[in-house]
Amino acid sequence: MKSFRDFSTKNKLIFIILLTTISSLGIGFTLVIINDINMFKKDMISNTIVVAQTIGEYSVSALTFEDKIEAQATLQKLRTLSNIEYACLYDPKGEPFSVYSKTDIPSETPAVQAESLDFREGFLHIFQPIIYQNEKYGTIYLRTSTQPLQKKIRTYLITMLSLTTILILFSLFFAIHLQGFISKPIIQLTELTQKISKQGDYSIRVEKSGEDEIGILCDEFNSMLSQIERRKQEQDQAEAAIQRAHDELEQRVQDRTAELSQSEKRFRTLFENMIEGLAIHELIYDETNKPVDYVILDVNPMYQFHTDLNRQEVIGKKASVLYGTDPPPYFSVFKKVALTGEPARFEVYFEPMGKYFQISVFSPSPGQFATVFENITERKVAENALRESEIRFAAVTNSMVAAIYVADMETHEVLFINKYTRDLFGDIEGKLCWQTIQAGKTGPCEFCTNHHLVKDGEPTGVYTWEFQNTITGQWFYIQDLAIRWIDGRLVRLEIATDISERKEIEKALQISEERLRLALEATNDGMFEENMQTGEAYFSPRYYTMLGYSPNEWPPTLESFRSLVHPEDLALLERAHQELLERKRDSHEYEIRMKTKSGDWCWILSRGRVIQQTADGEPLRVSGTHIDITDRKLMEEELHHAKEAAERANKAKSEFLANMSHELRTPLNAILGYTQIFKRDKALLSKYGKPIDTVHKSGEHLLMMINDILDLSKIEAGKLELSETHFHLQVFLNTLVEMAQIRAQLKDISFKFDFPSTMPVAVQGDEKRLRQILLNLLSNAVKFTDQGSVTLIVQTKDIGNKAHNSPDWTFRFLVRDTGIGISAERLEEIFLPFHQVSSPILQIEGTGLGLAISQQLVHLMGSELHVESACGEGSTFWFDLVFPEVEGVETSEIKPFNNITGYRGAKHKILIVDDRLENRDMLITMLQPFGFEISIALNGQDALTKAIEFLPDLILLDLVMPVMDGFECARRLRQIPFLKDVIIIALSASAFEITQKESLVAGCDGFLSKPVYADELFKNLQSHLKLEWLYEETVEIADSSQEDSYVIPPEKELEQLLLLARKRNITGLREYIKKLETIDHDCSTFIARIAQYSQKYQFKQIIQFIENHRQEY
Amino acid sequence: MKKLCLCIMIMAASMINVTAYDPVPDYKIKAALIEKFTRFVIWPFESSTSNQDDPFVIALIGENQLGIYLEEAMAERKIKGRAVVVKKIENLDQVEGCHILFIAQSEKKRLASILARIENEPILTIGSTDGFAQQGVLINFFRSDDTIRFEVNISVVHKSSLHMSAKLLRVARIIK
Predict the structure, then answer these.
(1) What Å distances lie between residue A896 and A672, A1096, A1098, CA to CA?
(2) A65, A133, A135: residue with CB nearest B171
(3) pLDDT digits over A1061-1088, tens only?
(4) pTM exceeds 0.80
(5) Does B171 sit within 8 Å of A61, measured CB to CB?
(6) What is the Cα–Cα distance from A660 to A656, expressed in whole angstroms?
(7) Domain carrying residue B122
(8) Number of domains composing chain B
């Protein structure tokens, strides 16, 4: 933006006049208006106060006598004053007494204030106390509109603005017209000055306009012009003189330059053509004047040639940048040269170029230095080659394990020795050989004067012999020969190798060979040796006699040997031979048949080894033995046949067992299925309860025995695997106690248990198998005990692991009985299968496999089942197991399915797939009463068709069926898009876990083994179909009718029962119940009810029951 | 001690409440109003330099309970800068020195004689009986719409040496 200074004088003048006018007018008007408005305001306030006081005065009596009508009448007088918008009278307590409002719009009465006035929100607010005879009768409040005031301000503003505008226009008019008096002469002067400076004509003069300051300025300007004009003329003359002098100088410079360029040219020629590389540098200093780097000033062509750097690229570059090192190369040397002027020289090797350079440095001028470098690679390479050759020679000779020395043939002076020689004889170079090496000689010996080495002045060749030092016993292999020495004379080179060791070995070998020969003759084995390359062979005499021939009856060749080999074994022979040739092996061992002289085949075991190789490593000689193994071979064959037969039989047994198990379980499925159905039928149960129970128990027993046999066969086949889960230890033990108690009660013996106070809540292990072991031991104990007791003891052993934060717990499980016991001699065999310790008089049921299975299962768990017993004194079985503690597991309370009558919600469709009629019927009978819609299919193929038509929610799928089995059916079902999510539960009588895994892989969601247990089936249906069962109500009703007749035990006992129930401590609960039963006879019904619940683990019901009755109490 | 006094007073008040026939609050209001009248009335003694130690005397004549309430209302209060004395008078001889005379309804029959006796005295006569104002009592209470109001006999005022402020007249019913 243009600043005020840059305005023309004319504009400046106009601007100043206008500014003055506007500011004076503005200040004047503003003062007038402010004054006027203040006056107006004061008037307004005093008027309002007068009104307030008057009205207040009038209202005194109304306030005194609390006459509101009078007060209102007084206030209404305000209506004549249009400015008063609102008024209020307050009694002395400050409560509004009477209110007046100009408009009907209701307005909030402000809280009373002390005497005050203020302008806000467009109103004047006045509070005035009403005082009469020095006593305050109340307060009046008036609200006056300030509209007149605002109106007045507006009027003032408009007037001022219009007045200001008019005055500004006047000022502008005068300013424009009058400014010319001042600005015109200045403008004229300015224009003239511009003209002079542009044209350089100083003869022009300014015309004077008056006698004021501008007039004086014109005069002065004119006199100044005259002076400039004179000065200019003088300057022109001086300039001409300077020009002349300059031209002369120029000529001189040109001459001098020509001379210099001649010299420069000479130097340049030298610079560019010299064979050495040359570079000129200058040091660079840092702020502290310390040299830090150098810059390249110039380089010659050879520099470029040697360094492969372009001149243009390097000139002016810093060395540190160019060579990429800091400090730059050889900086300390260069710095010294450049600063002291003393030249330097050194040799360097440039690895990237593979060249050696000799660098000479000198300083052409202070701070500069030139480097001359010469390629000395060739010389260096030659030097190095020589040094290397020397090193190699020394390395070879010094590393030889032989004494090497060179001696003069005339003087016998030792000229050269290797390290070996030096180690033996010391530094003997320059001494005489017969005095040093052959110490003890009086003159040159036969070694020194070997005449065979030279003939007609030429070396003959190597002369070798072996020599034993009679003093040390060492053997040496001596090689002597004449060679030409450096100076051309013939000298003797001797190489003496110590072969004492070889001599020893040779001797030992001789003895060993003799031994071997004798040994081979002693055994009946034939010996052979063959040459792999030529086919020549050697066969020992025994080799021939072994085959019924006399020694050397056939020629000792590979050919004749092969002709005797059984044609079927030739390939084997060939392969073994080939393997040796290809060096895949260095020995062979094979069994072949060979023809004896009598024409029979005889089995030979041939074992051989490569004992010698050719120079290039090919196998040369193979040596070995042949043993007649005909008898052994016959035995082996027999054994093999026998083993095969046994394996076939064993496999047949396993298959038979699996099939039998399946076949046996299939009818059991129907039997146990129907007994379960019958047991649910109350009518049937009342009449045939006992028979049905007997059938069911017999079925179960049969099933148990089948399972036992199967388990054993699985264990024997090594097919039994543990399946580890997380399980709740207390619940597990409670169930066990429950089952054992029932059995003990039946035999009228007591059952005791002792569990540790601290136990992990849940552990990881095979719950099923552990239960099997313990149940087996417990039922055995009950079985063999007729009076006394059976005890289950569980102990935890603190094995110090707790200290290591290990989750492992060691448990000892003991089962003790007071039964018949086991005699010492039978203790050994009780763990063997099919043994049962019992006297023939006792009728004991069972397969007798239990202990064998238990022992095997304990073994599988990595422990041992122990027994301690004496005849008639009972037995104790125990074993230790380690289980890792795990996070708590969900324990769902088992809800009995006995009382199910149906389920809530929509009808579910179930497809039953089984090829056997009885199984289908049994499942239909089991499920139909609960309202399932059921369809059936006879095999997998049928099931696919039915499933598409019927669209079931769930399929119960038998796995073994004709036409299409269950696995295939499940796979196919999963491929049908709209049946992809149908729930499939596999049913199988197969006893192998693998079946279950396979069925899940095939696409089944669940697995039920046959015989099908109703509870298991319902549990599966419940979880998969998310069923909510409906239960029979009758029991509940009967209970509630009884409720009132209970006698409630004391609060303390109820507390204890609740505590035990909440802790789910079934054993504690039962013990306490037992205790209560003995003490309190009045509450027997109440206790009995809780006992009843405790039998079914119905903790919730116990809690509910106690809570209900506790409230009554 | 204060508490005990208060108890006695409350007990006394309740006893009065039982015995009196007029509703108690009316007396209380009237007592307060009488005090307020004094503010709008100017007695001749106010313009002269009379003895400030003389009490301001309110006299009651006739059967009435107002005296108790008046005493209560005037306790520790001053009228025109003087201590207040409330007294009951039996005969008109005792009217000397009174500033206000309350004439009870029981005096209805001898009202004329009472008024005649104090005709030229600067005494503000107050009544609480219909027709008293017409008969010449200066201020007379009456009930209107459950509020106690009063009337002023303006002609008697003019004749009297008492000056009554227009403020009082503004809220009174004027009887001529």
Answers:
(1) 18, 8, 10
(2) A65
(3) 887 777 788 888 888 877 766 777 788 8
(4) no
(5) yes
(6) 6
(7) 2-175
(8) 1
